[in-house]
Amino acid sequence: MSSAAHKSSETSQDLLLSLAGVTKRFGPLVANNAIDLTVHKGEIVALLGENGAGKTTLMNILFGHYVADEGTVTVAGRDGNLEQLEPGAPQAALDAGIGMVHQHFTLAENLTGLDNIVLGTEPIFRLRRDRSTARAKLGELMAGSGLNVDLDQPVHKLTVGEKQRVEILKALYRNARLLVLDEPTAVLTPQEADSLFAILRKLAATGLAVIIIAHKLAEVLAVSHRIAVLRGGAKVGEMKTSDANHKSIAELMVGREVPVSRRTPRAPGKPVITLADVTIDRGDSRRSLHGVNVTAREGEILGIAGVSGNGQAALAQLIAGLDKPDSGTVEIFGEKVTKFDAHTFAQNGIARIPEDRHHDGMVGSMTVAENIAIEDVRSPEYQKLGFLDFDAIRKRAEHAIADYDVRCPGPDAPARLLSGGNIQKLILARVLEKSPKLILANQPSRGLDVGAQSEVHRRLLEARQGGAAVILISEDLDELLTISDQIAVIHAGHITPAMPTDSIDRSELGLMMAGQKTAQHAPDGTTTTNPGETA
Amino acid sequence: MEIIDILLAASFWEAAIRIATPLIFGVLGALICERAGVLNLGIEGIFTAGAMAGWMAVWLGAGLWGGVLVAALAGGFFGLIHAILTVPLGLSQHVSGIGVTLLATSLSYFTYRTALPDVSSPPRIEPFRPLDIPFLSDLPFIGQALFSQTAMTMLALVLVFVTGWVLYRTPLGLAIRAVGDNPSSVEAQGLSVYGLRIGAVVVGSSLMALGGAFLTMSAFDAFFFGMINGRGWVCIALTVFASWRPGKALIGALLFGAFDAFQVRLQTEVGAFLPSQVFLMMPYILSIIALIVVARKADYPKALLVPWFKGQR
Hints:
The complex is a heterodimer of chains A (535) and B (313).
Chain A: E1 15-26, E2 29-40, E3 44-48, H1 55-62, E4 70-76, E5 82-84, H2 90-95, E6 98-101, H3 113-118, H4 131-145, H5 160-173, E7 178-182, H6 190-205, E8 209-214, H7 217-223, E9 226-231, E10 234-240, H8 246-254, E11 271-280, E12 289-297, E13 301-305, H9 312-319, E14 327-332, E15 335-336, H10 342-347, E16 350-353, H11 368-373, E17 383-384, E18 387-388, H12 390-403, H13 420-432, E19 438-442, H14 450-465, E20 469-474, H15 477-483, E21 486-491, E22 494-495, E23 499-500, H16 506-513, E24 519-521, E25 527-529
Parallel strand pairs in A: 3-8, 3-9, 6-7, 7-8, 13-20, 13-21, 16-19, 19-20
Antiparallel strand pairs in A: 1-2, 1-4, 4-5, 9-10, 11-12, 11-14, 14-15, 17-18, 21-22, 21-23, 24-25
Chain B: H1 2-8, H2 10-35, H3 43-59, H4 64-86, H5 93-115, H6 142-145, H7 151-169, H8 171-181, H9 183-188, H10 193-219, H11 231-241, H12 246-270, H13 276-295
Helix pairs in contact in B: 1-12, 2-7, 2-10, 2-11, 2-12, 3-4, 3-5, 3-10, 3-11, 4-5, 4-10, 7-8, 7-12, 8-10, 11-12, 11-13, 12-13
């Protein structure tokens, strides 16, 4: 691996930020180990690394949320002189022109975009607010950058992409010279991501420096000038983007070869669950479905692509037996379902990997073993004379921990101590060990790093191979295109007919997710897309 | 029709506004706290403390407005206790609020008994007099209903406007509304979440205490046990009814005042048929019904009841 240090072609005049030998320890854990990083004016730097590699810690030090144990943070002042940034002072970072766009937006949803941007920028004890000056300045910023958004709308009415624009404007309004974006594309459709990248390039051309924290490689390769890779708290490589390739960076991040998941051809079996013309109207597009037809077959992964908040939650609730349709029918193995409750559905072999794994997937205060047994406490396997058989439960947990490589102190540790990736493995162990007939996987790899992600994919493919039907609800196109046999798109509560993955064009899929293009069901039963509706 | 006659009498509306006054103070106070994200169930005790402190200050020789100031300070003090427990320490707002109510109530009674160990009937003070504004007070109907109230009622009405202005027209109000919805938005912009929340709770509690002070210094002229009689709790409900807006808070308080004034008059008209307790229940039952109708779509401040800690993402 050639990871030669980046030779800057810019003069030191352009140097904006320099982190030198930054080290941060939390007890015995070294979160950052002597990290050096420089950023120049007009440069887009991608900071790559798996979860726990130390990206967030490093940025928290930059922002003064943490104080580094060793090392210095130097920022070029507006007059060009390099000055050391006062450690542990967020206000100093703001004043130095460092702006941050967090993954979870820091916007007050009841206020308008304008109010959110102006908040805290004027003296607080004044009888009136001056919005006209702010409006004028923002008008200029929006015209110059292409960050268009209706600033008079309350934030809760904006789309995720628009909220992100408000966040970026917030930083620019404060005259940010360095913009740090934490996982900016995690919540965007591919089109929104492309438009974000176009804006970032435009901003960089005017001299703004950008750091993008990411773990999706393809995007980073598309937008950045330079890539720095962190692993285990240390910088393990830095290269120009033009010298980098996908595979080598992935290996640098993970530290070993990443197994690539591939589908092996397999003929689908009989339908496991069939939704026919199902409508659930809850008056809110996030929780409603309109005349939906979905069929999941044995040995087949059906991907449901869509930007979150388009009815996925309603679909997941329905398939888990937690909700019942207003109209339309649900059939499991050809039999019409009359009783909608979670227990009946589970009895029928339907297992779920919930979207919010911390909240719906486990009980944090219970032990790992209890969490594994939690869905089957009624099964005789875990009972002895009507009481829970904790020996059997613990034994099962020990197997699961070993088989699924769950990193935890042991079966008796409280589950909340586990990291996101290990919680997901725990849930996989619980779900797959029952040999389910249908697996409802809702955003199964969201927020997981490359290694854990490929493990999830491998397990799902294994289950498919064993004859299970899988419904994979995801926003991640790479994931959908890699492991699904068929893909349907969900938008505003409508679901398109399923299309074979091999026939799908990536950018069309993105347009359909954004609702700008619809799939049509041709009379002969095959699926075609309608190019006429592309805006 | 007796009912129409009741509703058309200026004396009825005079009573309604008078009964509404302490509630206006209370709802405004509760609303400011909750807009910043802190539920203040100390309100019932803070009412008591304000009633006691204001009245006692006047009884000890302070002027009437001096008494109002002392009441506000007492309210602010108990508000500060609640704020410290719930904001930087992040304790349960319910538990802390009930605790403050118990503490403030008992301390008020204790002080009263310690200062006046031997009295059987509470000593009286010279309370606020009804205003006599030239011209305005002589207007038909409205002169009696509105312009012959006491100065504290006028203060309450002015405060509705001031609170609305601060919340919606000033940078401070913007920050308070933001901190009650998403504290991180405030922190990310370099403002102090703790400072804003503590300040809002202290100021809000001072207003609540004025509601109590109105009772002992304007509506009546003495302090006696149990006189708050659930008015604080009514304010908590009215805050939801008002959707956390000062203008609607005024309407809610006036509605409650009108119900209460109405039931007293109805009792004298048709009292022979029904026990008096039925009439006493009326304003509360009607408030509950109004709440059910309005509050189903209540848009709670999103960070209400949620403690926030520095450095938390």
